[in-house]
Design brief:
Helices cover 26% and strands 19% of the residues. The chain contains three helices and five strands, in the order H-E-E-E-H-E-E-H. It is globular and about 50 Å long. The N and C termini lie far apart (36 Å).
Amino acid sequence: MNDCIFCKIVKGEMSSYKIYEDEFVYAFLDISNDANGHTLVVPKKHFVNILDCESETLKHVMSAVQKISKKYVDDCGASGVNILNASGKEAEQSVFHLHFHILPRFENDGLKVFPELRKNDATLAELQAKLKMN
């Protein structure tokens, strides 16, 4: 896509702080610099989000997410990682090119990543009936 900022980064039309690259995936530091090592992992081919991504590409992306995460824990002092993805406007996706955030976590880093959710009105049985896949 011509106006996609992540496509421009992948093509080298915009600068980035590259962390990892292979045939299918490009990973770079998030310019927000809001968390130590906040990394974005994107497929080189444009997909809007996880809902339209080919399963083969998604396998490569998730493999890279795991590889980078292990590097951060094994070699960079992180004690864990948060992996985040938003797919769709209502899910708060802001850049419409599939991407996963890796947030390396460090002891006493003070980050609060998970949202506070309120109690759902539906029962678990009702949800299961609606959502169950055969």
